[in-house]
Amino acid sequence: MGIAERKNREKQALRERILAAARHIVMREGFAALSMRKIAEAIEYSPAALYLHFASRDEIARALCEEGYAQLLQTFEPLAGIADPAERLKGMGRAYVAFGVAHRETYRLIFMEDPSYTGAALGAKASAAVSGPSVGSEAQTRAQAEQPGTEDDPGAAALQFMISALDELKAAGRLAASVDPRVWADAFWATLHGIVALHLTCPVFPSAPLDTVVGIAMDTWLGAGGVAADADPVGIASSNANGAVSRRKRTGAAGAQSSSQDNAQVKGQGEAQAEAQSEVQDGPGAEPAATRRRATKKAR
Question: Which UniProt keywords apply (predicted)?
């Protein structure tokens, strides 16, 4: 072994020791406790030695996020063998939540600490794909996922896992042709993240066993027996339509009631004004005008 090769190996070994110590601190004490000095003490090096490998604590955090996200993706690999795409997506949802619960501090660091950490985990191509326009998204997403080097881009790999399953559902007529797979994937991911984030931060969530909550969420999105061809997974369209109809009905009823009240008020005001005019013309003791009108009608 040459001198240069030995130095490279030693450098890589020290880098791995730094990351291992940082990972241990984060998992045991949380990210707020992580510092260059504490890492140096853990590996028995001077803090200056760490700066030869990492420019800052943030750089170490980004490296940990990359590792953590790669670990999350590994939990999806066994799911590729599930033939039914809907069941494959359900399996992905359960695996995602299970990872977040089992690796709390790693999940927090990747998705709940700093956007730059999340970007480092997902990769540049995935960030561009998620933030890009939705016009022509199905073809655009597929093209981005097939770009050279995508297989090494963790974010694009996770997105493509969902897109492929959704394409299969559409091809089989089990998902509406109007569904945009990338938007669907974004919303599905948001549901999973919401479950994990609430579990990690909210002491009263969930009110039922977590597996039950996850199962209901998966069935809501994908159905207990798969998805139908005209499926509206989140029910947004029908909900908005029903809401609009209800609002129109309420508005119409309120308008009709208001109109009736206004007409009655105008009629009452007219009669009162007529009585006042009669009293002025005929004197205070005269028979009321309304009484004279009723008498005239009876005579006719």
Answer: DNA-binding, Transcription, Transcription regulation
